[in-house]
Write a structure and sequence with these properties.
CATH architecture of the largest domain: 3-Layer(aba) Sandwich
Radius of gyration: 23 Å
Distance between the termini: 44 Å
Strand order of the largest sheet: 9-8-7-10-11
Shape: globular
Order of helices and strands: HEEHEHEHHHEHEHEHEHEHEHEHHHHHH
CATH topology of the largest domain: Rossmann fold
CATH superfamily of the largest domain: Glycogen Phosphorylase B
Strand content: 5-15%
Helix content: 40-55%
Oligomer: single chain
Largest sheet: 5 strands, parallel
Structural class: alpha/beta
Length: 400
């Protein structure tokens, strides 16, 4: 999200970040970046006044829930604004894989259609079809949208993480193999794939690694660790739940090997991209590697079984030549796949094309127009009903 906001600011566009969420203590300082921050309310017509006065040329929704909530209001108040959906990942695919993993306990790539065509999918695909453009972080998800859901490619843009290059000077400053120690895991504890990976490590994979490396430690970092996570902290087993890291690069650069044993998920994995930039080789699953190198294979170790995962982890931790080779391959992948200049140029050009050809673009998307006519009406009336109910309750409290 910050990379997108920065890209818009580099165009000298006026950017307003409007959110109904409470401000986190870990939030970025957007005003320092020249971005206005506005708090907006859910199911409230005050947003109509706000957006009507602002009259933006472009509105971007953060995931499909925000498009559901505010898309019809934007269309009503600013019909000529380009509406972009930033999906982050294909949430319905992640959810379907999670359900499949509960059945099998194994890494889940392909899922039955009865799980894929869920209520989540119907809502998410509808939001994609209603939008003028959806940003997809993974080409693998574009392929799935085209084949499984028959989404027109004209509505989609592959836009992976946009990162500055790892320079030769940066590489020289990084600690080497001998200077690093311990394994590392990073991920928000509230994110279901991360929590599942932590449990899989604790119960199955980490004991197998410790058999081969009895003195090894696993350092686990992530935001919002609940008590059920901190209770897994066990120094005797080398299983160290560290919680929030002030700087992900600092802790990642000190680790020798990054572990990402994801059994389900979608999109691209930021933890793996961070590791590439920090020169920390990773071991992950087919889920973690999906889309990371486009149509090419993941250039670092990959395993879907706990036994193979543990064996590869121990080998990589001990063999300097193997470790160095994977580190260099990681630098190459990072600079080629996630080059900010190329992806930012593609994004801005696509937006400009949309603005110049918005009417024919929308006319070619009859399904989207039909969904906006029907779905958005029901969303509109539901929001207005909730607002009226809240107003009535507030009046009752005032007079009681």
């Amino acid at each position: 999200m910050l990379a997108l906001l920065d890209a818009y600011r580099r165009q000298n566009w006026q950017v307003t970040f409007a959110s109904p969420a409470e401000k986190s203590t870990h939030r970025a300082n957007l005003p320092a970046l020249g971005i206005s921050e506005i708090n907006i309310a859910l199911n409230c017509s005050s947003f109509d006044d706000f957006i009507r006065e602002l009259q933006p040329d472009l509105v971007m929704f953060d995931r499909f829930m925000m498009e559901e909530q505010f898309g019809w209001r934007v269309e009503m108040c600013c019909p000529d604004a380009v509406r972009i959906l930033d999906t982050e990942d294909l949430a319905s695919l992640r959810y379907a894989r999670q359900q499949a993993c509960k059945r099998t306990g194994q890494v889940q790539m392909d899922v039955p259609l009865e799980l894929l065509f869920s209520e989540h999918a119907k809502r998410e695909i509808a939001a994609i079809l209603r939008s003028d453009l959806s940003l997809m972080i993974s080409g693998a998800e574009i392929d799935r949208l085209r084949t499984d859901f028959n989404v027109d490619p004209a509505l989609l843009l592959e836009l992976p993480f946009m990162r500055p290059p790892v320079t030769a000077e940066h590489k020289k400053r990084l600690p080497g193999f001998e200077e690093r120690q311990h394994f590392i895991v990073i991920g928000n504890f509230r994110h279901a794939p991360n929590w599942d990976a932590m449990l899989w490590l604790k119960q199955t994979i980490w004991p197998l690694i410790r058999k081969q490396l009895p003195q090894a430690e696993l350092h686990i970092y992530g935001a919002y660790p609940p008590p059920k996570a901190t209770q897994l902290h066990n120094p005797r087993e080398g299983f160290m739940v560290k919680g929030w890291a002030d700087n992900v690069n600092d802790v990642m650069q000190q680790a020798r090997v990054n572990l990402a044993p994801l059994r389900f998920g979608a999109g691209l994995k930021g933890k793996l991209v961070d590791a590439l930039a920090c020169g920390t080789p990773s071991i992950t699953t087919s889920i973690g590697a999906e889309g990371m190198n486009g149509a090419d294979s993941w250039p670092q170790p990959l395993a879907d079984s706990p036994e193979q995962f543990a064996t590869l982890a121990a080998s990589l931790y001990c063999e300097a030549s193997q470790w160095t080779r994977y580190q260099h391959q990681g630098f190459e992948l990072h600079n080629e796949r996630f080059a900010i200049d190329r992806h930012e140029k593609t994004l801005i050009e696509r937006i400009k094309q949309l603005r110049e050809n918005l009417e024919p673009h929308r006319l070619a998307n009859f399904t989207g127009a039909m969904l906006r006519h029907h779905s958005m009406k029901s969303t509109q009336y539901m929001a207005q009903w909730i607002e009226a109910k809240n107003r009535l309750l507030k009046d009752q409290d005032t007079h009681s």
